[in-house]
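Here is one chain, start to finish.
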Amino acid sequence: MKFKQRCLISYFVWFWTLLVSEMVVAVNGAIVIASYGKEFFLPYLVLCNNDAYLHIVPTTPYSTNVLLTIKLLDNRTIYTNTINQSEVLNVNYSALMDLNGGHYKGWQIISSQAVSVYLKRSKGDMTILLPSDALGTAYLLPSVATVSNDKFRVIVYAVQNNTTINVSGNSFDRITENVTQGNTGEKTTFILNRFESLILETNNMTKCTLSADGAIGVLTLRFNELQSGAACDVLDLKTIETVPLSSSFGKHFYYRKFDQQANLTLYITGEEDGEVLVKTDQTKFQVNLTFNATVSLDFPTARYVTLMASNPIQVYATTVIVITETQEYILNDFFIPSQEQYVRCTMTSSCTELCPLFLNGASSFNSTDPNSFEQFSFSDATESLGFNVSSEIISHYLYNKDIIMKIWTNSSFIYFMCEINTGRVFPLGMRLSKLYRACVPDIVANGGLGDGIDNDCDGQIDEENINMKDDDGDTRIDEDTNFICTPVDITPVRTLPTVAKKKRAPTLLDIAIDEQDSTMPLIAVVLSLTVAIFAVFAVISIFMFLELLSRRKQIRNTKIRPFVS
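Its structure:
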C-alpha cells in the first residue's frame, strides 16, 4: 500500500512539474508565428536560372549582429556570413548549386536572429520563404487561369521523417519524388523523409488540396519550359510563390493598387460554402462560394478592393506591373494576407512586444501625395460596428526609389512594396497564426491572449491590444486580445538605420561557425523556476496530507483484540 501511494505521489509530482514548466515556457517564451524566423529550408527548384538569389533581411528589433549559415542536408556548412541589423545579404542561387557538390536536394538556412528570406531574380516576380516553425499540415492551391503555354510546378517538401502526404483535386501530368525519378499517373499518396521533395507538374492548375501527418512546405512556379536538363531545367520563369497554410485563412481583406499596376485579378477560394461581400471605390456586390471551387474577379480600374467573408478564405492575386522606362509588362502573383494576419506590436510601461524591422536601410519616408490616404471601415454582414483601415503611399529612397504602401488598422499594420525598376509587388511580412472558426460568446480571461479565436463574436479575431483601451470601438476593453507581450531587458531600436550595405556571396566559403542562440531574459528564468518549485511543493504537500488522513483512518478502523492465554 505504501509503495503504491509513493509511486502515485511521484507520478503526480512529475506530471505537474512538467505541466507547469511547459505553461511557464509558453507564456514567457511566447513565439509569434510569422513569415520571419530563424530556420528555413529552400528545396531544390530544378531551376538553372543564374539570376535567382536569396535576399536576406534582418527583422530583429535589437541592435546586434546576425550570423547567417547555409548548410547541406548532411549538416555540412557551405556558406556563412555575419551582418549587422542595418545590412541586407544577397546570396546567389547558382553559387549555392556550385557548392552543393552534385547533391541537389536543398539547403538549410539558419540565423542567430529573426530574418526574412526572399527568393528574388534580377527582374520579375519573387516570393518570401516561410520559416520551419510556420509550416503546417494542410494547404490549398487555387484554380488559376492559364495563359498561352504556361505550366505549373508544385514543390512539396517535408521537415520530418516518414511524412505521409495526400494530394487531391487535381490530376498532375508529371510526378517526381525525391528529385530522382519522374512518372505519370494517378498516384495521390506519397511518403517523404526530412528535407525530401515532391514535384508535381500540370498544364491546368485547378483547385488542389495537400494534407500531411507532419509539417510540410509548398511552393508553386508558373513557367514556360525552354530546355529540359539532367540536373536542372532552363525555364522562362514567370512567377514563384510560397503557399500559406490553410489554418491561416482569414475573413477580412484589403488591397490598394499601386499606380504601376495595369490590372488586378483576385482568385478567392474557401474550404466550405459561404458568401463574400466585395466593396471597391466604384461598386459593391456579393459573391457566393461553393466547396471545391475558385471564384475569379477582375478589377481593371478600381483603386482598392475590400473583401468580407462569412467563412475563412484564401485570396490569390494576379497582376501586371508596368516598368515605365522600358514599357515592359511583367506578370506578378502573390497571396494577400488577411487583416487578421497583419503585424501587431504593443509597447506599454510594463512590457514590450517589439515591432519587427522589415525596411532595413531606409533613409527616409515621405508621402508622395498628402491626399493619398484611403479610409475604409470593415463591418460584418449585419453592418454593425467595424474597424477602420487606412493606407498610405510613401517613398523609400534607398531602394532605387521603390514605392511602399502601408496599410494599418487601429491595432495592426502591413507593408507592401512595389519595385518599379524590377517589376514586382509583394507583401513585406505577415503573421501566420492559426485562426480558429469557433466563436466564444462569453469573454475569456485577458481576452484570450492571441488564441486565434473570435472571443467576443464580432467577426474579428484578436483585434485588441493589451492596453486597457477600447481598440475596436465596441465599448469593451481588452476582450479579444492579440499575442501576449513579453518583458525584455534589451533596449529596442526605435529609429530606422540610415545606411544599407549589401553583400553578395563569394564563390566558395566553408567555415563552420556554431549558431548563437539568443538567451531568455533573466527575470523570465527566475520567475519560471519559482513557479515550478512552488508547484512541486504544493503537490507534495497535498499528497502528504492525503496520506496522513489515510493513516489516521486506518488506525481508527484497527480493532484491538484481548489477549487470551
